[in-house]
Specification:
The protein is α+β, with helices and mostly antiparallel strands and 488 residues long. Helices cover 26% and strands 14% of the residues.
């Protein structure tokens, strides 16, 4: 401000230097309005309210302003912004179908707001739909809809397992990359997969829908679930700050663990530059987050590893430990193609008309492969990974679903049939090859099992119980014979 005093300018500069990006702890149960702890995950309040009250410059008066964490907004359609800032519609081809996601027709970011067939003026300001995002964040196996069943969001279960699992490599902790097909079953849970799921839960993936207009499904598409435009949603930054926080927590507990290959640790991380000469950061440059001038409450120097572990139990583990104290039988999904799709896992038969979410028959959980077409992309690393045939791996916790199945069927050792459906942007099943395996163990949850991939001897007790089977043909043939006409 031209009229600001030197003292005011000095104060603002000091505050700017001390400001730190807030994080959203997406795996922690939210706090209710009365201060009590809820039993569900939610978007942060800061990202859901349209206006905030702030103190006006040079005054003690409070004024209402649009909340910059709620949405990003422009005056014109984003496709009409001058280059290089224009945001174009995203073109994709899925299972022979051309899909155009109309992000260029938006004036603001949206969560769940874009739907095929709606008027472009609706797309322009399609809304934030935070209630739907909250429902999605609390994904759990379908049987937990039954009365008196303890519900543990899969997202929270994954985070707790990740932070309490010892002996993981840095590569196994951080990335979905299946290193030459050698990822062990007990090493398949990783931070990138958790990160991917949150992108889908917040933005959503379905641009089209099957069924009637009154179907209570999580239809819709938004910026956060689409790679080229995800970072325009302000919650992207709160989400990634928490990914950084979870990394710092894990590093504090595994401080000697780093890349096996030094060439990976020193690889240039384009396009992220650390100085005016545009020198690229490397992983070694950012290994110590404190050297960059910030820290988190849970990792502050002086906190012992035992104290950090106790805080992890308090934040994410109370219900998980109680429910899983019997035995651990996690399902491991080995995703063998970098494809933008949602992989839904089921124990037993699948309803050919309803295979979308936690209200679907025999639903266990989902894996979201957060990727995009490299056509027209400037990402050299993405192109190299495609050329090298890099595959992705993730783990879906299935302890509770397996134990529930065995309690009903009463035949110890007879594990459920595992089926999966890959669903595209249009809400349709896709003929995509995915390797899904169910691994089991009699180890207590507090002592995660160890073992080789595909049941190979690994000095432990983690072994493959079942191979998953694609349900594509049955679902696809049924939908061809009895097409569902979407109502809008």
């Amino acid at each position: 401000m031209k009229n600001a005093s030197q003292n005011e300018k000095k104060k603002w500069r000091r505050e700017a230097m001390e400001w730190r990006l807030p994080y959203w702890d997406f795996a922690r149960f939210a706090t209710n309005g009365d201060g009590s702890r809820s039993q569900e995950l939610r978007l942060p309040i800061l990202a859901t309210i349209p206006e905030i009250t702030v103190r006006a410059f040079g005054s003690e008066d409070l004024v209402a302003k649009p909340n910059p964490f709620n949405k990003f907004e422009t005056q014109n359609l984003m496709e009409r912004l001058r280059d290089p800032f224009a945001i174009r519609d995203q073109e994709d081809k899925q299972d022979g179908n051309d899909v155009t996601l109309p992000f260029g027709k938006c004036k603001s970011t949206t969560r769940y707001g874009l739907m095929k067939g709606y008027h472009p003026e609706v797309w322009a300001n399609a809304g934030q739909n935070w209630q739907l995002a909250n429902v999605a964040l609390n994904e759990y196996p379908q049987y937990q809809n039954e009365p008196n069943k303890t519900r543990i969001p899969i997202l929270q279960d994954k985070v707790y397992r990740l932070l309490t699992k010892s002996g993981k490599s840095w590569e196994g902790f951080s990335s979905t990359k299946d290193h030459q097909g050698q990822t062990q079953a007990d090493d398949a849970n990783n931070l990138e997969d958790i990160h991917n799921s949150v992108h889908n839960f917040v933005g959503r993936f379905f641009f089209d829908r099957e069924g009637r207009a009154d179907d209570l499904k999580l239809w819709g598409s938004g910026h956060m679930s689409n790679v080229p435009v995800a970072a325009f949603d302000p919650i992207f930054w709160l989400h990634h700050c928490n990914v950084d926080r979870l990394t710092a927590i894990w590093q504090s507990l595994n401080d000697e663990t780093w890349f096996v290959s030094n060439s990976c640790a020193t690889e240039h991380l384009e396009p992220f530059h650390k100085d005016e000469k545009q020198s690229s950061f490397t992983s070694n440059d950012v290994r110590d987050w404190r050297a960059l001038g910030y820290d988190y409450a849970i990792t502050q120097e002086g906190h012992s590893k035992e104290n950090i572990k106790k805080e992890i139990d308090c934040l994410y583990g109370n219900q998980t430990v109680i429910v899983n104290e019997d035995k651990m039988s996690p399902a491991k999904g080995d995703v063998t193609n970098l494809y933008l799709g949602l992989i839904n896992i089921f124990f037993g038969d699948i309803d050919e008309r309803d295979f979308y979410d936690k209200n679907s028959k025999n639903f266990v959980g989902s894996v979201f492969n957060f990727s995009t077409s490299i056509k027209g992309s400037n990402c050299g690393n993405c192109k190299r990974q495609q050329q090298d045939g890099v595959q992705s791996v993730a783990q879906l916790p299935a302890t509770m679903a397996v134990n529930h199945y065995l309690s009903i069927h009463g035949r110890e050792g007879e594990y459920p049939e595992v089926h999966y459906v890959v669903v595209n942007h249009l809400g349709k099943p896709v003929d995509m090859k995915v390797q899904v395996e169910l691994h089991g163990s009699d180890s207590p949850f507090a002592a995660p099992p160890k073992g080789g991939r595909n049941g190979d001897k690994g000095g432990g007790d983690y072994s493959k119980m079942k191979d998953g089977m694609s349900y594509y043909n049955k679902v696809h043939q049924s939908s061809q014979a009895s097409p569902l006409i979407p109502t809008r």
